Amino acid sequence: MEKMKCTLSYDGTNYSGFQIQENGRTIQGEIEKALKKIHKGKSIRIQASGRTDAGVHARAQVIHFETDLYLSEESWQRALNTLLPADIYIHQVVEVPEFFHARFDAIAKEYHYFVFNRKERDVFRKNYFYHFPHALDIEAMQAACQYFIGEHDFTACCSTRSTIKGSKVRTLTKLSCEKQGDEIKFVVRGNGFLQHMVRIIVGTLMEVGQGLRNPEEIPVLLEKKDRRLLGKTVPAQGLYLLEVEYPSE
């Protein structure tokens, strides 16, 4: 039995998220369907570094699976990409030790969120940016970023529909906001994320940018651990999983 690790990208536009569902097309479902064909009808379950919601994209998601087939790493990549739809692509397949786990061994993840900040809509960006037509104070948003960095209880940045049990303490090592032309990019890096956490943080920063709240309020609001006190959850299509880091890397 071998354990294989895959790095993949996908366009989440036409999927109901990563995790397999009874009703809905998912990234996991498509990959497991391809693996089932390769294994001549035998079901193979994959494990991912984490779930992404409907409409969220990934440039470097990581999964692993166990197999009793002995193919070269290049053959695995070629076979999977032949069977997968065009909006999912396997960049690399490598054999890993038996103890490796795509989710539990991850020590950091980085997400990027993109906003198209212009009055007119761009139909070619609608699935990949959040269109926001109003003015934003970038310097105020940059100042607010610093209050999220470090170790905090992020209960206030977690979806009320989340089923997570246990601590909601996470550590952000980077949060930045930059504007080039009509595009704003948020970069968020940390040791773990709660459901909708990045989208709620970005929503809060954008409210700062609109002058609806002050950067200095953020530490107090985080301490209250009340989802209702922070910003709106921005749409999924602007969010990308950019990197998953493991100890050996």
Automatic annotation (TrEMBL):
Give the active-site positions: D53
- Name the top EC class: isomerase
Catalyses: uridine(38/39/40) in tRNA = pseudouridine(38/39/40) in tRNA
Q: Which InterPro entries match?
A: PsdUridine_synth_cat_dom_sf (IPR020103), PsdUridine_synth_TruA (IPR001406), PsdUridine_synth_TruA_a/b_dom (IPR020097), PsdUridine_synth_TruA_C (IPR020095), TruA/RsuA/RluB/E/F_N (IPR020094)
Keyword annotations from UniProtKB, A to Z: Isomerase, tRNA processing
Binding of substrate occurs at Y111
User: Which Pfam families would you find in this protein's record?
Assistant: PseudoU_synth_1
Give the domain of life. Bacteria
Do the record's keywords include Transferase?
no
Reported EC number(s) for this entry are 5.4.99.12
The record's GO molecular-function terms, alphabetically, read:
RNA binding; tRNA pseudouridine(38-40) synthase activity
Q: Where is the Pseudouridine synthase I TruA alpha/beta domain?
A: 9-105, 144-247
* Gene Ontology biological process: tRNA pseudouridine synthesis
The record lists the membrane-crossing segments as: none
Is Nucleotide-binding included in the keywords of this UniProt record?
Answer: no
Supply the SUPFAM superfamilies for this chain. Pseudouridine synthase
- Per its UniProt record, what NCBIfam families does this chain match? hisT_truA
Oligomeric state and interaction partners are given as: Homodimer.
The record's function comment reads: Formation of pseudouridine at positions 38, 39 and 40 in the anticodon stem and loop of transfer RNAs.
UniProt family annotation: Belongs to the tRNA pseudouridine synthase TruA family.
Under which name does UniProt file this protein?
tRNA pseudouridine synthase A
What's the source species for this entry?
A: Ornithinibacillus sp. 4-3
| Name of the coding gene | truA
